[in-house]
């Protein structure tokens, strides 16, 4: 029996209760981060309200109402898993990826950067920078996914599988309007182009302004679902944007592009 630390009225709190509250708090916060901005958050809040009402009715001894709500919650649990299937998947993926892979990749990125710095820059980053500036100048639409740790194939579909070195000429050629591969996204993994013309999941986020079109929504969508970042060139105005964890940074400068490429490519 763990020792009681303090009491609030009739409630006796021990060390495990504090631990319990802390873990539930962290899990709820992570869940909120995952669902933020999506319609799923509204459903989640609805379910929480239902659950709290059930607890309140039960505590007040209103048996009929609480038993009806209990049935709802019972079915609700199964339907929650179905409704939130993509979010549950992403949540588990995030947990696993964060704990296992990110540590390794952080080290390899750190070491990689040290080697690159010693050699005077990473050629792939320089090639993508030049390609993006050129495409921005000519208002050529482009969408580039840089997968970080997760396997992007689980979410990204279609297009043409490739296994090519990144080069300025290749990136510009793929997105050239006459190219059969220009429509869709280019996927980069471990500094190699693994797919072109890929179809990405489109974000349903209500936080995005109405002016944001499908290309940018697709960039946001894929970063909501897997550990990846996206670089986008707008065909409409030639602006370069960046997407990460479901957030869109619009109209970034060349300096910022260099900084982000250094961090994520
Ligand atoms: N789900 C998707 N996955 C990958 N690429 C997509 C997807 N949806 C749209 N695109 C790309 O975006 C192009 C259409 O972009 P649209 O004009 O709707 O978006 P936008 O965000 O307004 O971009 P822009 O500012 O370049 O016009 C398509 O031709 C296609 O290449």
UniProtKB/TrEMBL annotation:
Keywords: ATP-binding, Cell membrane, Membrane, Nucleotide-binding, Nucleotidyltransferase, Transferase, Transmembrane, Transmembrane helix. One of its GO terms (molecular function) is ATP binding. Its EC number is 2.7.7.85. The chain crosses the membrane at residues 15-32, 39-57, 63-84. GO terms for biological process: cAMP biosynthetic process. It holds the Pfam family DAC. Residues 85-254 form the DAC domain. It catalyses: 2 ATP = 3',3'-c-di-AMP + 2 diphosphate. NCBIfam families: diadenylate cyclase CdaA. Belongs to the adenylate cyclase family. DacA/CdaA subfamily. Catalyzes the condensation of 2 ATP molecules into cyclic di-AMP (c-di-AMP), a second messenger used to regulate differing processes in different bacteria. Probably a homodimer. This is Diadenylate cyclase. It comes from Neolewinella agarilytica. The lineage of its organism: Bacteria, Pseudomonadati, Bacteroidota, Saprospiria, Saprospirales. The gene is dacA.
